[in-house]
Write a structure and sequence with these properties.
single chain, about 325 residues, mainly alpha, Rossmann fold, Tyrosyl-Transfer RNA Synthetase, 2 domains, two-stranded parallel ribbon, 14 helices, about 5% strand, elongated, binds tryptophan
């Protein structure tokens, strides 16, 4: 079947993936493979802009690639590669930086937030983060970029950067990408309050053992208003119920919905059931992950092949770009 166009997305290598990564992004990446030619890039250069992320860069990159393959990224069709393996992106980054007003970068809410979080590490690379991201997208002549809502300003920036470049050099070699904002709402952590993430240690890893998963699930905060087992609960404000809806068979979800509201089922029982359905849902992922991990050469081979295919596209674009800029 003819594909509808090319999808590109960059994923930061922060190590083993959790439920938030899966529901917020990976599930969508897997589904897009059916209709689009997909390129997924582990953005190690972007990770270098923040010191915390550089510590285990190699291991984190491997773990992320492993999780992506286990979750259903198909490397025979899809290109999965590591950003720094295709150095053409740094060349395009330099050229795009020439059409980027500095004030636009320092005005971005994402940049201001990083400065607030880490005022001592405001490096040049960090300021240029969105330019590098624009280079990622433009280098592969991307039609569509699936991202979370937090990345929307960066995507808008990338679109403008492509327009500025094409205008300045009177060309149309670069393609203005469309964005596809993920429909999923944000996944809350086991605290039931904050977005699930590693830094808050409120996450549940996809690759955790069934027993670890059960322990994390039993720590989950439920309806905060429900104090006693005999109080009726409100599933509408319960994070466990929200996730039941994703992982538990429909009839059981309906039973929990009804029974919770009339205190027929307690939170402990509800969480036990959730741990069961989650472990069941992750069974095939975990089996596949173990199978891939048992072949230590497999992930490096996939990434090397991905880089070769990505490089071919990238070099072709760069030849056109260099010509458009009239580099001597
Ligand atoms: N900035 C993105 C994030 O933090 C990662 C990223 C890098 C990206 N390059 C990209 C996303 C290109 C989409 C397209 O999640």
């Amino acid at each position: 079947m003819a594909k509808k166009g090319r999808v590109f997305s960059g994923i930061r290598p922060t190590g083993r993936a959790h439920l938030g990564n899966y529901l917020g992004a990976f599930k969508n990446y897997v589904a897009l493979q059916d209709d689009y030619e997909c390129i997924y890039c582990i953005v190690d250069l972007h990770a270098l802009t923040t010191v915390e992320d550089t510590l285990n860069l190699k291991q984190n990159t491997y773990d992320l690639a492993l999780d992506l393959l286990a979750v259903g990224i198909r490397p025979e069709e899809t290109i999965l590669f590591v950003q720094s393996h295709v150095p053409q992106v740094t060349e395009l980054h330099t050229l795009l930086s020439m059409v980027t007003p500095l004030g636009k970068l320092t005005d971005l809410p994402t940049f201001k937030e990083k400065v607030r979080q880490n005022p001592k590490n405001v490096n040049y690379g960090l300021v240029g983060y969105p330019v590098l991201m624009s280079a990622d997208i433009a280098l592969y002549k991307t039609d569509l970029v699936p991202v979370g809502i937090d990345q929307a300003p960066h995507l808008e920036f990338a679109r403008e950067t492509v327009r500025s470049f094409n205008y300045r050099y009177n060309t149309n070699v670069l393609i203005e990408p469309l964005m596809k904002i993920a429909e999923v709402q944000k996944v809350l952590g086991i605290d039931g309050k904050e977005k699930m993430g590693k830094s808050l240690n409120n996450h549940i890893e996809l690759a955790a053992s069934p027993e670890e998963t059960r322990q994390r699930v039993m720590m989950m905060v439920t309806d905060p208003q429900r104090m006693k087992r005999t109080d009726p609960g409100n599933p509408d404000v319960c994070n466990v119920f929200t996730l039941h809806k994703v992982f538990t068979p429909k009839e059981d979800v309906e039973m929990i919905n009804v029974e919770c509201r009339r205190a027929g089922i307690g939170c402990v029982d509800c969480k036990k059931r959730f741990a069961e359905s989650l472990n069941k849902a992750l069974e095939s992922f975990r089996a596949k992950r173990a199978e891939i991990a048992a072949q230590p050469d497999l992930v490096p081979a996939v990434l090397a092949d991905g880089a070769d295919r990505a490089r071919a596209i990238a070099e072709k674009t760069m030849q056109e770009v260099r010509a458009a800029v009239q580099l001597p």
